[in-house]
């Protein structure tokens, strides 16, 4: 734990009544001033984690630390955290100004100060001049900005955002992704952002926690998680991937689809059964003779930026290819990829074991 | 063609309103201009502004106000607790059930309970406080009235509390609001429509209560309702009775407007 840690979960478990636990032994650390994303499918416990941090609910087991102090029983209104709710939860009987000023009024701040701060917050979210609007007169995107303004105006140490963009249309969502990221940089406040959209997570975060079924499957920077998914779930959830069974003959040599390939992974048992991940965009279409793999084109979809081409090799493995070039359905084509494009996953490896192995063989490769 | 057939369906409704709402109102207004001998006069209106009737009006409003106030004080927390229970619809039904029983039956039941040898006095004796006159007091009148009106107050408040988005309470809490602040600034304002509806449903009939004033309050409480009854059934002065009714109707309209729904951003 560094001094920069602001929130720490120590083996937190959350149960409701006699149901199976919603969160199982979750531990993680949040550092000051970064943009974090909790990413996972619906029902995996993302909102529960936010509610635990905000103080709307208490952990069944384990401790939550805030600035080094256990805050398990500190009520929500005494925490230096503000939330942007999934449905915004703006007060319908108050106008924009009154909504944003809500927290400041509770703090008994002077009227002039409140007015100045609300104006400033509105400017931050590009809603200058909207003070006297009623909430029902605002569009979805505007409401969302009001909700953000209502949170940032209190200058909390951490802002929690529960799928704040999921209700917006695609264009507005992309726009808000930029704006949110920019806002976080300008304010320097820690953001904990929840989403089930992997592209959103990759685009915005300093650090991502991939959650599944009440557990953190993997945490790391977007590139870490994209390039080195720890298991099938993460690989599948973060973007499209080709996952095929293989055998690790020895370090830096792997066998799959009936062939031997050079790769950059190591630290396995000899002849260990593994899973191979190759991203569709790392596969290039070549003439059959030039390819490392020989596949038959099965179907093709135009996705705008690229074609999504589905192929099968002679072993029956499906290979998804993203290519700007068009293929012909039924053709035999070659697929080329670099050794770096092959990512090898060990069965049932935990994040700690994965990190340890990575360290070990990286050290080894430096010695060579 | 279509508007015609729609108008056709409206006929029974219009007939009903005309026969049972508009005609009686006009009749009341008409009778208020005649004295007991059947001569046209404005005397009734002058009489209404004499101390006797003004005091009666004031007393009506005062008791209706007390009944509404106590109903509200009991109904709000009750409705709030109801929304927190597991089987809230069942509990609600149990609370509403007594309102289906005839008012007079309930009044007679209270005559028994509050009587000199009734359950209430036995209970007080057992506590060692000693029996006392309960019936024919302000207390018994207000107690029984509140008991009778309570379900009508609970229902609209329960509905508005039940519709309240619980995330709003989290939001208030999140922004630093204590439970009290959350109640004052979020829960109460957002359930105000329910409170107003409840007050309207209780206050207006409470203004013209008359059977209870006789049975439970022993005619010690004279309200406008009692006065109307007396004029029509006892003194046969329909003119004066109608005049009081006219003022009562004006008061009711006034209250309806006053507690009318305020339209503001409720989603
Ligand atoms: N108050 C509650 N009582 C019982 N179960 C709950 C409650 N809140 C959430 N859950 C359960 O916890 C699980 C995780 O919920 P949540 O954290 O909201 O998931 P997410 O936000 O990732 O979609 C779900 O299976 C949900 O049914
Ligand atoms: Mg959620």
Automatic annotation (TrEMBL), chain A:
Identify the residues that the record assigns to the ABC transporter domain, covering every copy: 7-238
Molecular function as annotated in GO: ABC-type putrescine transporter activity; ATP binding; ATP hydrolysis activity
| Keyword flag Repeat | no
Q: EC number(s)?
A: 7.6.2.11
Q: Any signal peptide, and if so, which residues?
A: none
Broad class of enzyme this protein falls into? translocase
Checking InterPro entries in the record gives: AAA+_ATPase (IPR003593), ABC_SmlMolc_Importer (IPR050093), ABC_transporter-like_ATP-bd (IPR003439), ABC_transporter-like_CS (IPR017871), Mo/tungstate-bd_C_term_dom (IPR008995), P-loop_NTPase (IPR027417), PotA-like (IPR005893), PotA_ATP-bd (IPR017879)
Mind telling me which PROSITE patterns this protein's record contains?
ABC_TRANSPORTER_1 (PS00211), ABC_TRANSPORTER_2 (PS50893)
Extract one GO cellular component term from the record.
ATP-binding cassette (ABC) transporter complex
Report whether Ribonucleoprotein shows up as a keyword of the record: no
Reaction(s) the record says it catalyses:
ATP + H2O + polyamine-[polyamine-binding protein]Side 1 = ADP + phosphate + polyamineSide 2 + [polyamine-binding protein]Side 1
The family database entries (SMART domains) matched by this protein are listed as:
AAA
**Keyword terms, alphabetized:** ATP-binding, Cell membrane, Membrane, Nucleotide-binding, Translocase, Transport
Family statement drawn from the similarity comment of this UniProt entry: Belongs to the ABC transporter superfamily. Spermidine/putrescine importer (TC 3.A.1.11.1) family.
How is the quaternary structure described? The complex is composed of two ATP-binding proteins (PotA), two transmembrane proteins (PotB and PotC) and a solute-binding protein (PotD).
Described by its record, this protein's role is as follows:
Part of the ABC transporter complex PotABCD involved in spermidine/putrescine import. Responsible for energy coupling to the transport system.
Name this protein carries in UniProt? Spermidine/putrescine import ATP-binding protein PotA
Organism per entry: Sporosarcina globispora
Which lineage? Answer: Bacteria, Bacillati, Bacillota, Bacilli, Bacillales
The gene name reads potA
UniProtKB/TrEMBL annotation, chain B:
Chief subcellular location equals membrane
Keyword terms, alphabetized: Cell membrane, Membrane, Transmembrane, Transmembrane helix, Transport
Q: Which residues form the signal peptide?
A: none
Ranges for domain ABC transmembrane type-1 come to: 57-259
Q: Does the keyword Transmembrane helix apply?
A: yes
SUPFAM superfamilies given for it?
Answer: MetI-like
Give the transmembrane ranges: 12-33, 61-83, 90-114, 134-158, 197-218, 238-258
| PANTHER family associated with the record | INNER MEMBRANE ABC TRANSPORTER PERMEASE PROTEIN YDCU-RELATED (PTHR42929:SF1), INNER MEMBRANE ABC TRANSPORTER PERMEASE PROTEIN YDCU-RELATED-RELATED (PTHR42929)
Q: What is this protein called?
A: Spermidine/putrescine ABC transporter permease
Q: Which organism is it from?
A: Sporosarcina globispora
Its lineage opens with:
Bacteria, Bacillati, Bacillota, Bacilli, Bacillales
């Amino acid at each position: 734990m560094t001094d920069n840690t602001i929130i720490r979960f120590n083996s937190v478990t959350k149960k409701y009544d006699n149901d199976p636990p919603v969160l199982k032994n979750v531990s993680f650390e949040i550092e000051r001033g970064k943009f974090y994303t909790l990413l996972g499918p619906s029902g995996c416990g993302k909102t529960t984690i936010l509610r635990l941090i905000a103080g709307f609910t208490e952990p069944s087991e384990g401790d939550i630390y805030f600035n080094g102090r256990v805050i398990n029983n500190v009520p929500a209104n005494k925490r230096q955290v503000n939330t942007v709710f999934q449905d915004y939860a703006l007060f319908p009987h108050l106008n924009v100004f009154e909504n944003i000023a809500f927290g400041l009024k509770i703090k008994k701040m002077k009227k002039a100060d409140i007015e100045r701060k609300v104006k400033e917050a509105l400017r931050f979210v590009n809603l200058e001049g909207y003070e006297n609007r009623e909430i029902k007169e605002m569009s979805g995107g505007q409401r969302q900005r009001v909700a953000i303004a209502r949170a940032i105006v209190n200058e909390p140490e951490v802002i929690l955002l529960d799928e704040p963009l999921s209700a917006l249309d695609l264009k507005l969502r992309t726009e808000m992704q930029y704006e949110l990221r920019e806002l976080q940089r300008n304010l320097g406040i820690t953001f904990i952002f929840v989403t089930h959209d992997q592209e959103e997570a990759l685009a915005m975060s300093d650090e991502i926690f991939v959650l599944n079924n009440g557990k953190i499957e993997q945490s790391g920077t977007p590139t870490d998680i994209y390039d080195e998914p720890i298991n099938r779930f993460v690989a599948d959830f973060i973007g499209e991937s080709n996952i095929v069974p293989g055998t690790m003959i020895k370090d830096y040599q792997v066998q799959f689809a009936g062939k031997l390939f050079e790769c950059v992974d190591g630290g396995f048992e000899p002849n260990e059964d593994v899973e191979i991940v190759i991203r569709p965009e790392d596969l290039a279409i070549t003439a059959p003779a030039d390819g490392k793999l020989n596949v038959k084109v099965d179907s093709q979809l135009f996705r705008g930026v690229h074609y999504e081409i589905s192929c099968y090799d002679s072993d029956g493995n499906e290979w998804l290819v993203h290519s700007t070039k068009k293929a012909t359905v039924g053709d035999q084509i070659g697929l080329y990829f670099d050794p770096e494009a092959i990512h090898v996953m060990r069965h049932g490896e935990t994040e700690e074991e994965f990190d340890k192995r990575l360290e070990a063989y990286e050290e080894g490769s430096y010695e060579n | 063609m279509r508007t015609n057939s729609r108008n056709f369906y409206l006929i029974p409704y219009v007939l009903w309103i005309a026969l049972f709402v508009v005609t009686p109102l006009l009749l009341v207004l008409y009778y208020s201009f005649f004295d007991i001998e059947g001569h046209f006069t404005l005397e009734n209106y002058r009489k209404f502004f004499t101390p006797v009737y003004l005091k009666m009006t004031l007393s009506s409003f005062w008791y209706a106000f007390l009944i509404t106030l106590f109903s509200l004080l009991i109904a709000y927390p009750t409705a709030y607790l109801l929304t927190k229970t597991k089987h809230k619809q069942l509990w609600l039904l149990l609370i509403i059930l007594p309102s289906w029983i005839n008012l007079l039956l309930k009044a007679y039941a209270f005559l028994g309970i509050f009587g000199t040898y009734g359950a209430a006095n036995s209970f007080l004796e057992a506590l060692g406080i000693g029996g006392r006159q309960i019936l024919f007091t302000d207390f018994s009148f207000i107690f029984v009235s509140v008991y009778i009106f309570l379900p009508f107050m609970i229902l609209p408040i329960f509905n508005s509390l039940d519709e309240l988005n619980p995330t709003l309470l989290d939001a208030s809490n999140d922004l630093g609001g204590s439970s009290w602040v959350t109640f004052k600034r979020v829960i109460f304002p957002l359930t105000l429509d329910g409170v107003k509806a409840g007050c309207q449903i209780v206050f207006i009939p409470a203004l013209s209560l008359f059977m209870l004033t006789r049975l439970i309050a022993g005619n010690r409480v004279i309200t406008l309702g009692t006065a109307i009854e007396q004029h029509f059934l006892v003194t046969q002065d329909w003119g004066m009775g109608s005049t009081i009714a006219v003022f009562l109707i004006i008061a009711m309209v006034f209250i309806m407007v006053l507690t009318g729904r305020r339209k503001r951003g409720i989603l």
